[in-house]
Amino acid sequence: VQLQASGGGLVQAGGSLRLSCAASGNIDSINDMAWYRQAPGKQRELVAAITSDGRINYDDSVKGRFTISRDNAKNTVYLQMNSLKPEDTAVYYCNAAGVVLTTTPWGEYDYWGQGTQVTVSS
Questions:
Q1: pLDDT value at position 104?
Q2: Residues 100-104: contacts with CB within 8 Å, 24+ apart?
Q3: Could you tell me which of 34, 29, 86 has the C-alpha nearest to residue 61?
Q4: Among candidates 46, 43, 47, which has minimal Cα distance to 62?
Q5: pLDDT at 105
Q6: How far is CA 79 from CA 9, 35, 41, 54, 107, in A?
Q7: What is the pLDDT of residues 26-78, one digit of tens each?
């Protein structure tokens, strides 16, 4: 299973970006998909998460500005980021948790994407 993230870049404060992350491989289903971010010198933190049935959770710092969504048929999660601030600058990672495979070994697994850089200039 691989997670391929895209959509990062450089944007001015107040601008917008849309991140995408597509999971591929021997996937039967994915329970939870999420975006995390890690700024230099800081720990990785949860930005937003969405379950397979559409329940959503946001970090307080992005509520009202970011929107997470997913396409279960495409095993893809999106993060629409509006009103970006310099403090949103970080490497953004997508995560797929509770991934059920179509092949052995049976079980549920977690996977991470490679990260995409988001830089917001003031």
A1: 80
A2: 100/27, 100/28, 100/29, 100/30, 100/31, 101/1, 101/25, 101/26, 101/27, 101/28, 102/26, 102/27, 102/28, 103/26
A3: 86
A4: 47
A5: 82
A6: 13, 8, 23, 14, 28
A7: 999 999 999 999 999 999 999 999 999 999 999 999 999 999 999 999 999 99
